[in-house]
Amino acid sequence: MANYEMFTKEEALKFLESRLGVKDVQKRRISNPQTLLDDITTSIQAHIPFNNMSLMSIAPEKRRRPTLEEIKESVVSGTGGLCYVLNVALFCILKALGFDVVMASVNVFFPRNHILVYARDVNKEGDVFLIDSGFGYPTFRAISLDFEKESPEFTDSFIEYKYMKKDKKILRLHRNGDFGQRSAARPVYIDGWRVAYVARCYGTANIEDFYLDYDEVYTFQSPIRKPFKTSFQTNFRLVQFPEKRAVIISNLKLMLENESGNLETILMEGGDEGILSAVRRYFPVIPEEMARQAVSQWRKLYLSKPE
């Protein structure tokens, strides 16, 4: 399905300019494509939440990979989703604008459970940029892969990060601001930097190549028989970066980025209604019933009693 068209060029332009506020898309596609990519990926993270509400709100036995039509609806409506939703839509939008793009598989704690986009021949023939709007950590730029071993160090929002080429893979590394080590059974460090993910260097334009992997990501199976490929079958998570500043709900915690670029953590009170109140305040685009069902399913599966 390499020729699948989720967005026409006109739809992509309208979405970027009217919904996300990206300016002069057609002009910059020719005159300055790299900064256009920067603005597109940043605007997605600012306006559309990374979250697992649509997954968590469904009874475990009914969970499944979203269709391409559902992906488009989730992005256009602004409700967002996980990486498969956000970065597949990103790929289709960039393709509609005429960029040469492919998608690549990534390992985040588990094999092939994340997806990102490579854009080729952006500024010149042969260059490659990594674009990731659906990681949950901020990446407010298209990352040039025109480096020999390591990229420059970047700081976006609360996280310090860089990229490394190693064993024909692309590694994303985190240092200051990182909290992913809490989720890793055996975190891997390189000179004080945690390996946040490992990506393939090559990609594909055929979305069907990812179907089997994301059937496993989205389908609920007993972790006793087969480990989950993602923590989002077990966690309640919403992440967004309005004005490039982090707002995160992670289970019972609300994390807000302060003016110094650090996360302040608040333990939400009031049980389920306290969580729902925070969702309404900080993520008003999430439908009330979806959020309520997500909290209910989360409680049933993983918490023995309300807090």
Automatic annotation (TrEMBL):
Domain of life: Eukaryota
Pfam name, any one: Acetyltransf_2
InterPro entries noted in UniProt: Arylamine_N-AcTrfase (IPR001447), Arylamine_NAT_domain_sf (IPR053710), Papain-like_cys_pep_sf (IPR038765)
Enzyme class: transferase
SUPFAM superfamilies assigned to the protein according to its UniProt record, in alphabetical order: Cysteine proteinases (SSF54001)
Gene3D superfamilies (UniProt xref): 3.30.2140.20
Gene Ontology MF terms: arylamine N-acetyltransferase activity
Enzyme Commission identifier(s): 2.3.1.5
Listed PANTHER family: ARYLAMINE N-ACETYLTRANSFERASE 4-RELATED (PTHR11786:SF0), N-HYDROXYARYLAMINE O-ACETYLTRANSFERASE (PTHR11786)
Family classification: Belongs to the arylamine N-acetyltransferase family.
Name listed for the protein in its UniProt record: arylamine N-acetyltransferase
Annotated source species: Plakobranchus ocellatus
